[in-house]
Amino acid sequence: MTAQPQEGRRGTLTLSARTWLLRAAIGALAVLLLWLGGFLWFLAAMPVEAPDASPEADAIVVLTGGSRRVPVAVSLLLHGRARALLVTGVNDIVGPPAFRAAMAESGLTVDPQTMACCIALGYGAHDTIGNAEEAAAWMKAGGYRSMILVTSTYHMARSAMEFHAAMPGVEIRQHPVRPAPPGLDDWWTSPDSRLLMFSEFVKYQAAWLRVTARSMMPG
Fold first, then answer.
1. pLDDT tens sequence across 147-165
2. Using CA atoms, how far apart are residues 180 and 183, in angstroms rounded to an integer?
3. Spatial separation of the C-alpha atoms in residues 125 and 14, rounded to whole Å
4. What sign results for the dihedral spanned by CA atoms 127, 128, 129, 132?
């Protein structure tokens, strides 16, 4: 006589559990679809080529880390696109002579006068946030109001966001650099390239959340 109500309660609990699991699955699917949509947007927005016309500005800032970034930035300086260049994120063991030698290996001649007057090596940054902070201090000290930001294509969105946050009054013109061959045209075919793209998207999301939250804080 008492077994039927207990079975009814078990049936009700089972139905509730199933409903909760269904809602959790729908929520997880929605989050996954949003993440994939964001990743597709990130890929679509990623620049694939540098602009046809090289920009001009007061200064150039290049972030180390990609094999072609620094030679491209030095080439822009040597072609008169700006008055000064900051290389941010330089290894402590690289001094001006070693830097000039590295540029010579890339086919660029940097004479001692140009090195002394127009190229600054920044050793204080260890990530993109540090790059932006170091560049902001250097731009302020030099009285520069516009800059050309040079970094890899996949790194440009996050870098530009960090730089705009660090120096909101500075005009920033982007000069993306394609990675050295084989590049990222078929990034999904290489495990290393897939890891690079997914990790960069995750870092971009984290940077967006942090920058957005900070902009909403009073004062």
1. 999 999 999 999 999 999 9
2. 5
3. 56
4. positive
89-107 burial code (b ≥16 CB/10 A, e <16): bbeeeeeeeebbeebeeee
Residue with tokens 């609990």: 13
Rg (CA), the chain: 25
CA angle 84, 143, 104 (to 5 degrees): 10
Cα angle, residue 183 at apex, residues 79 and 61 outer, rounded to 5°: 35
Nearest to 76 by CA among 65, 92, 62, 66: 62
Tell me if 108 sits within 8 A of 71, measured CB to CB.
yes
pTM assigned to the model? 0.84
C-alpha to C-alpha distance for 86 and 104, rounded to whole angstroms: 18
3-state DSSP assignment of residue 47: coil
Backbone φ, ψ for residue 149 (5° rounding) = -95, 120
Tell me if 187 sits within 8 A of 39, measured CB to CB.
no
Mark the ranges of the chain whose per-residue pLDDT is less than 50: 1-3
* CA–CA separation, 181 and 204 (whole Å): 24
Query: To 10 degrees, the CA torsion angle through 136, 141, 146, 148?
Result: -60
